[in-house]
Specification:
Elements lengths: L1 H11 L12 H8 L1 E6 L18 E2 L11 E4 L2 E5 L2 H4 L3 E9 L2 E8 L9 E6 L10 E7 L3 E6 L7 H12 L6 H9 L1 E5 L7 E8 L2 E6 L2 E7 L8 E8 L2 E11 L2
Antiparallel strand pairs: 1-15, 2-5, 3-4, 4-15, 5-14, 6-11, 6-15, 7-8, 7-14, 8-9, 9-10, 11-12, 12-13
């Protein structure tokens, strides 16, 4: 009985990230899915505007500052340097995707060219009503943590967004139940960033999203927004600098 009680107590404090059995998601995509897009960036960009990267990529922020190069294709590497201050927004670069279950495999590096380098990547459906800009779900890598977040049913839900903004406007602390709702839509784990190249895999399967680095699942999370039936875009949001070497998008269903 004491052993059982000890096990139950230990299980109760396990982080959400450890709740699911680790798996090789790159292998899952290859075995169960179909590659619907691949880019190794072996070309030169054509100017600085929205479609300058080529191969179907579009920058939602490039046309705001056409005189500043935010995406440089250099020897097979997409080097993103956001003009966040000048554009009034972090660099937002996206490509058509189109799946329910599936994901992306990305080779990336923080080059160490700016402070607090970070990378947000994930899925968008601009046709979705009731959600700001169609933001669905993302993985966010900072210098000290990795976070998964369901924005569809969390902070980008227009009702939730208005409710939060109303509290902010009144300089009131949101009630505990509202904060608990928003907190339930995300999970984070500690991670120390470096300047090495890493293979990142970000997948959705049903109501679960998982993020892997170099073949190991780092964090996973269940939330209803991950099950959205159409991830129309795969997108990067980069507030400073990051290098991307290769992108593959896979559809499982």
């Amino acid at each position: 009985m004491n052993l059982l009680r000890h096990f139950l107590l230990f299980s109760a404090i396990l982080p959400l990230a450890a709740a699911d059995t680790p798996r090789d998601d790159a292998a899952w995509l290859r075995e169960k899915g179909q590659m619907i897009f691949h880019d190794a960036f072996e070309r030169e960009e054509d100017g600085n505007l929205a479609k300058a990267i080529g191969n179907g990529w579009n920058s939602a922020t490039a046309d705001r500052v056409p005189q500043i190069k935010m995406a440089d294709l250099d020897e097979g590497i997409l080097k993103i340097a956001s003009a966040s201050k000048e554009a009034g927004h972090a660099a937002h670069i996206h490509h058509e995707a189109g799946f329910t279950d599936g994901g992306a495999v990305v080779r990336f590096s923080f080059p160490g060219l700016s402070k607090s380098e970070s990378l947000q990547l994930g899925y968008v459906d601009r046709e979705l009503k009731g959600v700001h800009a169609g933001h669905l779900c993302y993985g966010i890598l900072s210098q000290s943590s990795i976070t998964l977040i369901d924005q569809k049913t969390g902070i980008m839900n227009l009702e939730n967004r208005k409710r939060r903004d109303d509290y902010l406007a009144r300089k009131e602390k949101p009630p505990a139940d509202f904060e608990a709702l928003l907190n339930s839509k995300k999970v984070g784990v500690p991670w120390k960033a470096d300047h090495e190249w890493h293979e990142l895999v970000l997948v959705t399967e049903g109501d679960q999203m998982r993020l892997s680095l170099d073949g190991k699942v780092i964090v996973s999370h269940h939330s209803e927004g991950y099950a959205h039936t159409m991830k129309r875009w795969f997108s990067f949001l980069v507030p400073n600098t990051v290098w991307i070497d290769d992108v593959k998008i896979w559809k499982v269903k």
